[in-house]
Amino acid sequence: MTAPHPALPARIHPLVRAYLDTRDAVDETLIRFGSPVHLIFPQVYADNLERMRAVLRHQLPGHRICYAHKVNQSRALVRTAEHAGIAIDVASPQELASAIGAGFGPMRIEVTGPKGEAFLRDLIDCGVTVNVDNLWELRRIAELAGDRANVPVLLRISGFPDSPVSRFGVPLAHVDRAFDLLTAHRGRIRFLGFAFHIDSGEPAERVRAFDACLELVERAYGRGLTPSVLDIGGGFRQVFTADADRFDGYVRALRESLLGHREPMSWADNTFGYHIDDGAVHGTPVFHKYANTIPATRMLADLLTAPLERHGGRTIAQVAVDNMIEIWLEPGKSLVDHAGITVARVEFVKELADGTVLVNVDLSRDAVTPADQEVMVDPLVLPSPAHRPGPIGDGSAPHRGAGDIFPCLAPVTESGAVGVYFAGRLCLERDLITNHKVWLAQRPRPGDLVIFPNTAAYHMDLSAAAASMHPLPAKLAVVHRAGSFQVYRDNDYEPLIPVGVPPPRRLPSRRPPLRRPPQRWPVRPDSAGAP
Which CATH number describes the domain made up of 14-41+338-527? Predict the structure, then answer.
């Protein structure tokens, strides 16, 4: 029996799967709004939020979730967060305006990241909580506030033992200088507590940071301050892969190809951060985060139940409760995990001089991939109606990249597995959407749809390019109500829109309001049970 080709199957939320299985809904969306499009699923976001809330409710009576707005510019997601009653973390004047426009009051807004003086003035006027990045910010807040404000602040700390140097936060060694400012300006600054952010995903590093901040709480009380909040930041990982064993198998095959032991699997000899030395592959690849299999809820639960040696082995949650410390966190990626996909259309397929097959689509790499990463999950290919030899679900051989996850999808007619690279529409050699080879059971054809999974976290907005005057992909909200799917422009989505009612008109708007109610599509019988 022939061994299967290496593959990186993507994990897909059941609601997203149900939408893609309802092919009439997908086709109508592309007819109405064109291609490419970013699709946001607010109900998946709400599901992720509820799972995280369940962990917190079980461990911590006092907590606050601040959705990290920076992860996606979607208004639909911000409105979903506001409707759910959580707080929001913003990092720019534009994000602040977005949060206020979505209904967040100052008591539910935290502002993080580096801030200039003009921004600080606005924050003081708004009365939001300022997560202070450095001593200059703290000093300027005191000076700008004068006697007219009591600005709520958190002090972000960095430089923890055995942690990499960070460009953000006040180093531990400088905390006494911060205490001097806080005590000298008690009437102008209301000191809430400390904050940190650990992006490594290493549990022990986060525990050390928490313990160090507990010690700072004790020192602050010794200076007459009364901190009651400890903000543990974000950095809770996503789970991209649907099959950890196949992911590991792909990486093994990739390493073999870099050594020349099998056909090339990377574009232009890209090593993805590996290096070859003495006939062996060494180093950590740039795509290592895509290997994660631990969901954010388990990461959070493990953190809250981690014992603290300095506190007699009591857990982080127990120490927080015993000392009346409120835990804040700033999840972004974990809340939008699987809550977004990007859909593009195949424009043409070409073969290069060395036999490499390129599948060119109508978007650029920057619209779906953070600039410094390689997204190590396979895109899904949905054949266009013209290329389907039989009805959906006729039992034909599956189309690689979709068939393993969506067995109802019909294959294209050409036979023979083919390894391809997906290429973008810019006139730049670097515009390769996949620098790793993707094996498909059939060669795609013009008009087929390509689904890029799990693009809601930074992929859609962090570096989307408008080079060559190409417009950015439209962003749409997809919801499932009363047995059917409805699609709204992102700016027009509201969590409480009744089924079949057209979205409200908002002026001014970047896009013209819809002129007709959203389309509704019944869910296919084989999708029953999706949320």
Answer: 2.40.37.10
